[in-house]
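Worked problem 6 (solution included).
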Amino acid sequence: MPKGRIPIVTRTTFQSKRPQVMQFIRDHLKAGRQAYIVYPLIEESEAMDLRNAIEEFEKVKKEFPEFKIGLLHGRMKPSEKDEIMNAFRKNEIQILVSTTVIEVGVDVPNANIMLIEHAERFGLSQLHQLRGRIGRGSEASTCMLLYHEPLSEMSTARLKVIRDSRAMFATVMANFPKLNAP
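Solution. The predicted structure is:
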């Protein structure tokens, strides 16, 4: 992590806690911050019963009528994606509803909240990359991993690793000079 960056707090929570998570987001938006809400799918799938960006975009707009909401996904034209991202960077959009199209190359220091829906469906690398989109400014950042039950043993382990990884890394780095002492 670059020097001076505040570590990101990562929390895992049940889908049933979604109303509290949305209130947490609202509180931060009222304080002038921005948020990402990430979904695993662009649109509804007959094969998987998962929330998707297009349908949830409409719900998020109704849930947060006082804020500007943007939608970003991989099927959009590059010019449309650029327009949305530029508006988000300028804080003309406060919530960016997205798919994993944001996992690399996005830098919006004012965006310090990330909600990842169906976090159990993502791999460690994706979760790590997505979480890396926040924590780029001077404010504390929070990444919330919302999951649906039942969780497999592998999904449970993956969410625990990503939740605890910053703390483990900080402990290792804090003790690193001691490990190499003569």
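Discussion: Residues 167-174 have pLDDT under 50 and may be disordered.
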